[in-house]
Specification:
Number of helices: 6
Number of strands: 9
Strand order of the largest sheet: 2-1-3-4-9-8-7-5-6
CATH topology: Rossmann fold
Structural class: alpha/beta
Strand content: 25-35%
């Protein structure tokens, strides 16, 4: 399979997800929406996060083209997994509301599966409750008929956008190096100051959580690829 990963920033690559794709013998193509037209021949798509927001088309005009591409993926039933910004863009492509949150969610926060998750081919097998690494200030509001698969007090954390499309708000793809870079580069950002982010505490928790977190991310990506292969 040809798996396209939409990458929006230098420190926002596929990390663990990329490892899984390659280990399964698939071709991984990193596509930068700000630099090139969308690829036309993807068998599966992973849409990653980024520091920009979905309503910043004036500053990032390429967001409009990527949104149109995502709508075409939904129409063609291409297996698609959105992460953070990618999840928000996928939700918007489906016509769901996406808006700024009352308070940013950054660092390790607990997430719980909903009763719908055990029957979902991608979220099934995920622990009923788990600590998840987060870094976002926007979130989607799934409409009532949508299948919401995980939640916490901040927002819907995982949802099925279409028959073969999923969004996860948490960063199941990141490894320890990515988290370390985000904490180094982002600790002084407006959203980090808003939540009084303690970067050292988040580093210490990362050391404790990262092995289990990467196992969760690998499992989630493997199940997504099972769907795509099928």
């Amino acid at each position: 399979m040809r798996v396209v990963a939409a990458v929006h920033s230098d420190d926002g690559g596929p990390c663990v997800f990329g490892d899984v794709v390659r280990e399964r013998g698939h071709e991984l193509v990193e596509w930068w929406p700000a630099e090139a037209a969308p690829p036309l021949d993807a068998d599966a798509v992973i849409v990653l996060g980024g520091s920009m927001h979905i309503d910043q088309e004036d500053r990032h005009p390429w967001l409009r083209g990527e949104g149109e591409w995502l709508r075409s993926l939904l129409d063609r039933r291409v297996p698609t997994l959105g992460v953070c910004l990618g999840a928000e863009m996928l939700a918007s492509a489906a016509g769901w509301p996406v808006a700024p949150m009352a308070r940013s969610e950054i660092g390790w926060h607990d997430v719980e599966l909903t009763p719908a998750a055990p029957d979902d081919p991608v979220l099934a097998g995920t622990p009923p409750r788990f600590p998840a690494f987060q870094w976002h200030s926007y979130a989607a509001s799934p409409p009532d008929p949508a299948s919401v698969l995980a939640v916490n007090p901040f927002c819907a954390q995982a949802y099925r956008v279409a028959e073969r499309a999923w969004g996860i708000q948490f960063h199941a793809e990141v490894d320890s190096a990515a988290i370390e870079k985000w904490l180094d580069d982002g600790a002084d950002g407006d959203d980090a100051r808003e939540v009084s982010l303690d970067a050292d505490a988040e580093r210490e928790r990362t050391w404790r959580e990262i092995a289990a977190w990467n196992d969760l991310g690998r499992g989630l990506c493997n199940r997504f690829l099972d769907v795509a292969e099928g």
